[in-house]
Amino acid sequence: MPPWTLIVLGIAILLIVMLDVIWSTLSPTGAGPLANHVTTIGWRTFRALHHYLQSHRLLKINVIVILLLTSSLWIFLLWTGWLVIFISSETAVIDEATGEPAGFADRVYFVSMALFTLGTGDFVAGTPGWRITMSLASLTGLTMITLVITYLLPIIGASMDRRQLALGIWGLGDSPESILKNGWHNDSFNRLEDQLHQLALLLTLHAERHLAYPVLQFFHASDPRADLSPRLANLDDTATILEHGIKKGSRPSTTTLRTLRESIDAYLRRVETFHVTQVEEVPPQPNFEDLRQSGIPLREIPTIQRAFDEAADRRQLIYKIMRADGWNWGE
Question: Where are the domains of the chain?
Answer without folding.
Answer: 3-149, 157-324
